[in-house]
User: Which sequence fits this backbone?
């Protein structure tokens, strides 16, 4: 057992970064980072994929030696502190780093031994952490069978063993539903009140907006350090909301997205939110107002997109064509309802994972499945994809019965899994080639499609790169390209943008909307409520059944009526529905 370390007095600055740099061969992951992180608060660490967030956290954790400058924690060099007083630093990596085939308690016991937490003190620590994270009823459950939110809570519990003074969390909200993310945030807030310093890395701008201070990175450089509100001043007066006719919303979005001088254009319910560049705002503002637009208060995501230089101007995946030939809704044999679920039920023994789920998705429609971790979304999704046979009920894809002609139905759909499932050891080009052959694309079709799809999804510069060397956002782009390579009439997307930054999400949805204009029906699961705003309709699932269904605006209006809120967000509506169901069932 390691001898207890001598106490270290906490300075007002818990973390000091001085001209910090990190190089991996020819690549500069960080360059000239200087900042001070205050003790006893949450500092948000934000930035796009490959910005340097994980590298910075690993340097703070003392896991690497910087190639330039210094990083000091509690007045000491990070690596020195990690060697001599490791329990003062808690670190939770981005990937779930625990043993999935061990129980919750076994994982805690293993990490306790590594931290030198033994004897009677260990049981007291376990009791406190299990109560704090809400994991006490699940100590015997295998970690691999926990929901996304519960896995993150277990990761935080293991990082808290040894009572660290600094807690480093690498994107703890990825793959976690809004209710669980709020619970995680409440946990972190409680820790800060007790004096702990927390660094919370995130790709979600609503999480960063909650932090008293943020660090914003891009390509290894520090773009902003300080209060998130300070970033808003740069875009004040340049943010507008338009309310086009519902049927013209996507056309209006495409038009404004392609317009020079527009830094960002995104769907927000029945409205389109625009951020104009500083140079173009004087000329474009009157045009926006002529179309009924009005200036609105900026949010952190607006400032973030502007600071990064705006949206990536990738070309349309179909060039000047208005539709993909294989997904033409005008075809005589194309059904109006391309996805149909009727009474879908899945039982595992006495447990009902999904019960009597019914809905349909029309050609050209985006339908979203929302719900907490473990609510039954993935079970429903897998039944509709033909990956799991239902206990009862029927499902049809593009007019084909999945239970009677599964192979034929699967040939008519594209599927993007939640976990990256392509071949990591081969190049991007080879992965795409494998899928092109599986979908039966001849050489001529491949020569025509692949260059424009690679350009549309920003993969042209990575075409010869080894797949496992890509950052997360590029891997997700590749997975989407492979899922849509054959221009399917039905597209299933299981949390397609989990963990990717706002700018990458814009490219994803540009590609998806181009397919829906062709008549493709899209079924998507997501925990990101801003993304759910793109959906024409939403079904909220909990406890294996649909508890609410409607357009995003209808769900928000219902929340406003029930709660009395003037302008609830979709996240507010999501949480209100779940909490109402729990009250009705007496499980709150």
Assistant:
């Amino acid at each position: 057992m390691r001898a207890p370390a001598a106490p270290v007095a906490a300075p007002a600055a818990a973390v000091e970064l001085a001209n910090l740099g990190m190089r991996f061969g020819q690549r500069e992951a960080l360059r000239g980072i200087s900042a001070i992180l205050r003790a006893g608060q949450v500092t948000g660490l934000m930035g796009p994929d490959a910005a340097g967030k994980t590298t910075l956290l690993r340097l703070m954790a003392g896991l690497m030696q910087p190639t330039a400058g210094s990083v000091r924690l509690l007045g000491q060099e990070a690596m020195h502190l990690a060697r001599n007083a490791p329990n003062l630093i808690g670190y939770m990596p981005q990937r779930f780093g625990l043993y999935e085939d061990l129980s919750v308690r076994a994982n805690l016991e293993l990490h306790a031994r590594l931290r030198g937490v033994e004897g009677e003190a260990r049981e007291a620590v376990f009791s406190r952490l299990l109560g704090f994270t809400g994991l006490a009823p699940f100590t015997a459950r295998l970690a691999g069978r926990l929901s996304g939110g519960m896995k993150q809570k277990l990761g935080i519990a293991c990082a808290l063993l040894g009572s660290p003074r600094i807690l480093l969390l690498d994107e703890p909200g990825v793959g976690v539903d809004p209710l669980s993310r709020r619970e995680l945030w409440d946990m972190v807030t409680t820790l800060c009140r007790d004096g702990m310093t927390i660094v919370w890395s995130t790709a979600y701008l609503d999480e960063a907006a909650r932090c008293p201070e943020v660090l914003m990175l891009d390509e290894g450089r520090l773009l902003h350090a300080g209060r998130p509100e300070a970033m808003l001043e740069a875009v004040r007066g340049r943010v507008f909301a338009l309310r086009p006719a519902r049927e013209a919303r996507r056309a209006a979005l495409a038009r404004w997205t392609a317009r020079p001088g527009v830094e960002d254009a995104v769907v927000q319910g029945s409205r389109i939110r625009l951020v104009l560049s500083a140079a173009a705002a004087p000329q474009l503002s009157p045009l926006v107002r002529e179309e009924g637009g009005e200036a609105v208060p900026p949010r952190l995501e607006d400032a973030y997109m502007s600071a990064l230089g705006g949206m990536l101007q990738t070309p349309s995946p179909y060039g000047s064509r208005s539709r993909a030939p294989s997904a033409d809704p005008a075809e005589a044999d194309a059904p109006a309802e391309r996805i149909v679920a009727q009474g879908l039920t899945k039982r595992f023994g006495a447990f009902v994972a999904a019960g009597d789920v019914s809905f349909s998705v029309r050609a050209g429609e985006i339908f979203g499945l929302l719900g907490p971790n473990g609510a039954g979304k993935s079970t429903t999704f897998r039944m509709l994809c033909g990956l799991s046979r239902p206990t009862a009920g029927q499902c049809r894809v593009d007019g084909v019965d999945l239970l009677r002609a599964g192979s034929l139905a699967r040939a008519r759909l594209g599927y993007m899994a939640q976990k990256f499932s392509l071949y990591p050891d081969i190049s991007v080009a080879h992965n795409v080639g494998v899928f092109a052959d599986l979908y039966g694309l001849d050489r001529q079709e491949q020569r025509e499609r692949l260059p424009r799809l690679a350009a549309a999804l920003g993969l042209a510069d990575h075409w010869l790169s080894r797949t496992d060397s890509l950052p997360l956002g590029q891997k997700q782009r590749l997975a989407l390209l492979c899922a849509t390579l054959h221009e399917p009439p039905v597209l299933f997307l299981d949390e397609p943008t989990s963990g990717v930054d706002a700018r990458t999400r814009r490219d994803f949805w540009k590609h998806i909307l181009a397919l829906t204009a062709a008549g493709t029906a899209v079924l998507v699961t997501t925990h990101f409520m801003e993304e759910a705003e793109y959906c024409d309709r939403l079904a909220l699932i909990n406890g294996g059944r649909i508890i609410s269904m409607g357009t995003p605006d209808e769900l928000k209006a219902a929340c406003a009526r029930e709660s009395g809120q003037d302008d609830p967000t979709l996240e507010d509506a999501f949480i209100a529905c779940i909490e109402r169901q729990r009250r009705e069932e007496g499980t709150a």
Observations:
- The chain is about 35% helix and 25% strand.
- The mean pLDDT is 87.
- The longest helix spans residues 178-193.
- The two ends are 42 Å apart (CA to CA).
